[in-house]
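To illustrate the input format used throughout this study, we show a single complete record. The first block contains the structure-token representation of the backbone; no residue identities are included at this stage. The design step must infer an amino acid for every position from geometry alone.
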């Protein structure tokens, strides 16, 4: 199984390291040809405007949308979650609009724009998941087909719609690989596409 990490900008290396530590091949995806060689994709955190523009320049937005519509699993963290959303407030970057969620960028407040907390995630079981939020987007609305897997102050922070997974936090930074494992399990279940 090959899980590509979109490598246009952002914390690419950290995601690749978590995947490699789990024994999974994790090539960088910079071009549509790279994308054709992977079974699933992680869109990392970073700066969604920059990443969105680079994605469009290389035609990767269309290629990702086409693959995802045919069932390729995609996991977007933070800026990656913004790019998967159907709408984003606070300066909308070019979006993939694949997932029925609406987000507001940088919406956890200016004074404490980065923080860490522990989340209860029933789908992962105990113990609580340590989560790192960095200038994170807030999920303001989720559609009917979206399963909310974890919330913070009644806002979804980890959610799934079919083979699409998003988190507003950075699981690649906390030393706990359970969200990546959850994604790998989802990819294994979808290998028929
Ligand atoms: N604030 C960033 C954005 O809006 C996302 C932050 C992150 O990915 N850590 O693009």
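Output of the design step:
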């Amino acid at each position: 199984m090959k899980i590509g990490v979109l490598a246009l900008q952002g914390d690419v290396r950290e995601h690749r390291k978590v995947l490699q530590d789990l024994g999974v091949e994790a090539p960088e995806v910079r071009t549509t040809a790279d994308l054709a060689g992977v079974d699933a994709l992680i869109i990392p955190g970073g700066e969604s405007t920059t990443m969105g523009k680079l994605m469009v320049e290389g035609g990767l937005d269309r290629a990702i949308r086409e693959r995802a519509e045919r069932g390729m699993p995609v996991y977007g963290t933070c800026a990656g979650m913004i790019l998967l959303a159907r709408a984003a407030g606070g300066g909308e970057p070019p979006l993939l609009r694949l997932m029925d969620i609406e987000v507001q960028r940088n919406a956890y407040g200016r004074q404490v724009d980065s923080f860490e907390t522990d989340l209860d995630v029933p789908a992962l079981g105990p113990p609580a998941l340590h989560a790192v939020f960095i200038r994170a987007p807030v999920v303001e609305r989720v559609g009917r087909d979206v399963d909310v897997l974890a919330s913070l102050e009644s806002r979804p922070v980890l959610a799934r719609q079919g083979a699409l997974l998003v988190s507003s936090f950075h699981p690649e930074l906390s030393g706990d690989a359970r969200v990546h494992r959850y994604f790998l399990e989802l990819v294994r279940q979808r290998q028929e596409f």
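Structural context for interpreting the output: Residues 178-189 form the longest helix (12 residues). The pocket of glutamine is lined by residues 45-48, 78-79, 82, 105-106, 134-135 (CB under 6 Å).
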